[in-house]
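JOB MANIFEST
job_type = single_chain_structure
chain_count = 1
residues = 192
[input]
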Amino acid sequence: MIENIIDSTEIPNKIPSPQEKFMKFQCRARQMIMRDNLGRPDDSITPTIYLKDNTNPITKIITLIHKLPEYSALSELMHIARKTNDPSQRRDQAVKLLSASYYQKHREFTDVLTATFTPNSNLAETLISEGSCRLVFDAYSHKFESTFTVNKLERSEFLFRSTIMHNQLFNPKLHPETIILSFSPVWEENEA
């Protein structure tokens, strides 16, 4: 019956974008890591790095995702860090906060990832000079591969502060001159 046919422009797009699929995967994986693995990273958040057209992987890095500034929990994380100097108490309180509802809403997060590198890191210098790389996430029957632009963050930037605060809760021996790089996805080149 012709009268029952609905114009396809009236049907909302139900297919999630590569960005939405990736962010949902990252939020769910990180929530599972907090709940089931006490915050210890697994393959879902430690992508393999490839430079440009190179088919040989360089290494894996641990990445962080961050809430957008308007949804930030930076003050809560700072409160945990200031409340105690005991690394195990900090970790326990951070895991409790992050395993609850923190990762529930993927739209509250930026798709820009960050990672820490030791001072004078050759890898960090290579990534900065290249300006981009491919990151491959492969875990839980999901594989995401995309090109990411790479930038060195300055201490004054929100993502720098957020990365430091998160890492201080899980890594009390973080070097004060740690290098933090941001990885911004180029979704047009994404393969999921």
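[summary]
The two ends are 38 Å apart (CA to CA).
Confidence is low (pLDDT under 50) at residues 1-11.
exit_status = 0
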